[in-house]
Amino acid sequence: MEKIRVAIVGIGNCASSLIQGIDYYKTKSENDIVGLMHWDIGGYKPCDIEVVAAFDIDKRKVGKDVSEAIFQLPNCTTILYKDVSKKGAIVRMGKVLDGFPDHMTNYEEKYTFLLSDEKEASKEDIVRELRASGAEILLNYLPVGSEKAAKFYAECALDVGAGFINNMPVFIASDPEWADRFESKGVPIIGDDVKSQLGATIVHRVLTNLFKKRGVKLDRTYQLNTGGNTDFLNMLDRSRLVSKKESKTEAIQSQTKIRLEDENIHISPSDWVAWQKDNKICFIRMEGKLFGDVPMNLELRLSVEDSPNSGGVAIDTIRCCKLALERGKGGVLYSPSAYFMKHPPKQFTDDEAYRATEEFIAGKREN
């Protein structure tokens, strides 16, 4: 098979886990895998993904081969494969816009971004680099709250005709105007806000749907999350949390039998705990009523390495996007978006989204 040529915006922990994982699974076979939802999608294996371009704004990453940049501070995720091969893709200075949270300058350098003194890129620079690299898919891993920057790179993808995978909670695929633009250009898009393999959102969604199926009335629920990576540090500025909170909340509300009042549902990152690094701890509480209005409650604590938890999902989204490119399908890929993302344009149950995505992969469903 030919390689799937991808470009990445934001060489943080999630990008690091993804790139390490691509090389890690080169050492595995179909009979010796853990942690992937699909070994083969349309004939493409994880090792068929090739990173050909990358953009960041941190001076510790800009100018380095992406294989070296992924291990630079403030990245702190688990090293699952240290012998990542040279990619020949040098991290270029990107466009800053709102991708640099001002409040993070108040913390030690090892925890936060160090803005490169290189001249920031123009749209023409980004488009030129994407074309020169032959990138056919652009992955967005910008920090939460980077609305202007996310839309800037979506524009670049449209100009180049590269598929766009929006892994963060700025609403692009789920915005009808943006969806129409990708449709009219014949460019596929998957989004918004990547859903981890087994993280807080998927667990909370499945439990909420289970309450509904088993006739348990859900009265109120919360989901609290703490972590020590730059994502959680960035989100200490609550003004950057608006779309993230909406994305995570709607992911749960979509699974309820009766929509909960705002005061009865609280889904949000809670705090940054430096020593947790890339480990995320989630606390879920659900209160409801059983037969005869008898009350019950459920409490759950989940601890996961945050960035590897999305790596396998990203590998699948890339391959699904490649299938759309091969099939000449532009616009929103509704089935993969519902299965892989928290805030897709159309919400399904996770079982429905799984079946629809399998049909899409098999070519039995258009999008």
- The oligomerization state is single chain
Topology as H/E string? EHEHEHEHEHEHEHHEEEHEHH
Extended strand count = 11
Tally of helical segments: 11
Low-confidence stretches: none
Roughly what percent helix? 25-40%
Description:
- The protein is α/β, with parallel strands linked by helices and 367 residues long.
- It has helices spanning 13-24, 66-69, 123-133, 147-160, 176-185, 200-213, 230-234, 242-253, 308-327, 334-340, 350-361, and strands at 4-9, 49-56, 91-93, 137-140, 163-166, 188-190, 217-227, 265-272, 279-289, 295-305, 331-332.
- α1 links the parallel β1 (4-9) and β2 (49-56).
- The longest helix has 20 residues, at 308-327.
- It is globular.
- It starts with a strand and ends in a 6-residue tail after the last helix.
Short description:
With 367 residues, this protein is an alpha/beta fold.
List keywords for this structure.
single chain, 367 residues, alpha/beta, seven-stranded parallel beta sheet, four-stranded mixed beta sheet, 11 strands
Walk me through the topology.
Layout: E1 4-9, H1 13-24, E2 49-56, H2 66-69, E3 91-93, H3 123-133, E4 137-140, H4 147-160, E5 163-166, H5 176-185, E6 188-190, H6 200-213, E7 217-227, H7 230-234, H8 242-253, E8 265-272, E9 279-289, E10 295-305, H9 308-327, E11 331-332, H10 334-340, H11 350-361
Parallel strand pairs: 1-2, 1-4, 2-3, 4-5, 5-6, 6-11, 7-8
Antiparallel strand pairs: 7-9, 9-10
